[in-house]
Amino acid sequence: MVKITDVARHAGVSPSTVSYALSGKRPISEETRQRVEEAIRELGYRPHAGARALASSRSNVLALVVPLRAGIHVPVVMQFAVSVVTTARRHDHDVLLLTQEEGEDGLRRVADTALVDALIVMDVQLHDPRLDLLRSLERPSVLIGFPAEPAGLTCVDLDFKAAGEACVEHLARLGHRVVALVGSPPEVYVRGTAFAQRVVQGFTAAADRGGLSSSVHPCEATPAAARLVAEQLLREQPALTGIVVHNEAILEPLTDAFEQLGLRVPGDLSVTAICPDEIAESVRVPVTSVALPSAELGERAVQLLMKKLDGGAVPDATLLAPRITERASTAPRNT
Amino acid sequence: MVKITDVARHAGVSPSTVSYALSGKRPISEETRQRVEEAIRELGYRPHAGARALASSRSNVLALVVPLRAGIHVPVVMQFAVSVVTTARRHDHDVLLLTQEEGEDGLRRVADTALVDALIVMDVQLHDPRLDLLRSLERPSVLIGFPAEPAGLTCVDLDFKAAGEACVEHLARLGHRVVALVGSPPEVYVRGTAFAQRVVQGFTAAADRGGLSSSVHPCEATPAAARLVAEQLLREQPALTGIVVHNEAILEPLTDAFEQLGLRVPGDLSVTAICPDEIAESVRVPVTSVALPSAELGERAVQLLMKKLDGGAVPDATLLAPRITERASTAPRNT
DNA sequence: GTCCCCCGTCGAAGCGCTTCGACGTCACGC
DNA sequence: GCGTGACGTCGAAGCGCTTCGACGGGGGAC
């Protein structure tokens, strides 16, 4: 193995000079730097990661904790992970993969052994048992999602309120005046899952602002429940022409139900959704949707972490602007 | 930070004794071990990963290179990755995530800097540019998939020949006598992609062995092509009652085509496939299939790597036995 | 001309751990 | 009763890198 002393000898300088030439932490003359770089190239030198970590107390590795729960949309996770790795590499860092399964012990382990410099935790729950640990850890972390009590933590997520607004505004722009939100199962709202409620807030606010008539309908994640909601909507709001779905599982069943009830999508009814693109694209009538911007999320998470590692201050909350993708399920109102 | 000397002092022994108590590389009296363990617990000691890596030239980290190519089925990759992480943890190792994108430089980097002890490379191509590099690296590696020239490498994959056989045998057991294989696009066979050809071998061998009449039909990954193949099959082999599909993209279109041509699945025609479970389950008529056993693949890959790291000898090729899952698409022959 | 300071470089001291050789002790064999 | 291991422990020497303090030399300020 070729080490820094070899490079130093070959370049006719001291090891510390090689180190400084590499890190740029002290001024090195242009000429010396050249010689060092050439020596490095000729010898094929690669600094030993462990030695570096030991001496500098920086491993240049980030931990990424991915969820395993059922119901998590795998492509979204993967996209996020790839984005994290790619962005981390641009900042000269690597990524250690941890599973949710490892839990708090896993976080503590990689943090305390100095295996990683910082952590990214996906799929944060409202009352996540890991929150206290993350707060107490001496290493910076970024959470994807918002817990109930985010104080002292750095969180990143889609701006679900704006997402709700974006869907309504899209429908309003197409001339729709009566809209409904078909949401997540009731227990999700009862649990107080922040993001579901924020969609409702955005939906309602935008409808009010635009003078639309609106209503909100939680819905179980079953085709039967979707059918019931569809029937109820037609009965109670015959003038309904636009809906927002925030419940991936019933996207297709709900559309089917409406069509069976005689409404064509998008002829009679325009449908928008908040769901992963894969789902929006794979249903029978591809649906205009706001997706979780996983790639951007990953990038931002890493950027925030880098700033924290540099000792910089970062906002506690980062909300990403929704981006709506128009597909076949929305059309101007049929006048 | 609490270090090994703190533990040593607290336990009234020397640092080396603590180290040996931890690693078990030298005999330590039961009593001393107890004292050391207690000291560790009381002080909350965690060995510094970098220091350990430097002193022992073992980082206890594995690199996992995941593919990004389009056409790769994401859930399979994710399942594999999770399995690798889980298994690695059981062997006291962590996993560093690399993307295909990093290419050869990435492999060289993590290997040469001693960031990782060994590598797992997914989605190996027939003439993968990384092969020579992996062969020349001083660190062990395991490939998922088989390249054209696997000499000097350790490869793991599904036994595709046995998978082809399993499908035929399943159909034979149900009484089917005339079967067809609808395979991958022609260019896949021309390119000599080993696994596609091995499916054909297994399919043909099992059919011959069982006295079935059989035929093989490459097929483009488009609904139109599927339709053509279906028509051709019906025309040329009216007695056909069983098919094996090795082409994820046309699973649904092909079934649709047959039904439109008047054949019911599984009433008139039994369908088996070699494809990820997610796909087999998500088509209209869930299809009896052999899946890529990603979890098992990940586990085996790690086990092989561990053996190599211990200096053990491992087989060049490891083929995993196929497991067929019966679903709604197969039934006894309609006599 | 002198003083000061900055630039560029060096030497040495660790970073926290593993591992090698050494050493004392004890039990056993002959 | 003494040699011979095996056992259990210790001390010290690194592993390869970063970083701190120091130092010589040159340029600017006065």
What is the radius of gyration of chain A? 26 Å
Per DSSP E runs of 2 or more residues, the count of β-strands of chain A stands at 12
CATH architecture designation of the largest domain in chain A: 3-Layer(aba) Sandwich
Tell me the quaternary state.
homodimer
Q: Remind me, CATH topology of the largest domain in chain A?
A: Rossmann fold
CATH H-level superfamily title of the largest domain in chain A? Response regulator
Number of helices of chain A: 14
**What spatial order of strands do you see in the largest sheet of chain A?**
2-1-3-4-5-11
- So what's the overall shape of chain A? elongated
- Which structural class should the secondary elements of chain A be placed in? alpha/beta
Q: In this structure, how is the largest beta sheet of chain A organized?
A: 6 strands, parallel
Helix fraction bin of chain A: 40-55%
Question: In brief, what are we looking at here?
Answer:
Chain A has 14 helices and twelve strands.
How would you summarize the topology of this molecule?
The structure is a homodimer of 335-residue chains.
Chain A: H1 4-11, H2 15-23, H3 30-43, H4 49-56, E1 61-66, H5 74-90, E2 94-99, H6 103-112, E3 118-121, H7 130-136, E4 141-144, E5 155-158, H8 160-173, E6 178-182, H9 186-190, H10 194-210, E7 213-217, H11 223-236, E8 242-245, H12 251-260, E9 270-274, H13 277-282, E10 288-290, H14 294-309, E11 317-320, E12 324-325
Parallel strand pairs in A: 1-2, 1-3, 3-4, 4-5, 5-11, 6-7, 6-8, 8-9, 9-10
Antiparallel strand pairs in A: 10-12
Helix pairs in contact in A: 1-2, 1-3, 5-14, 8-10, 11-12
The first copy, chain A, binds a DNA duplex (30 and 30 nucleotides) through α2 and α4.
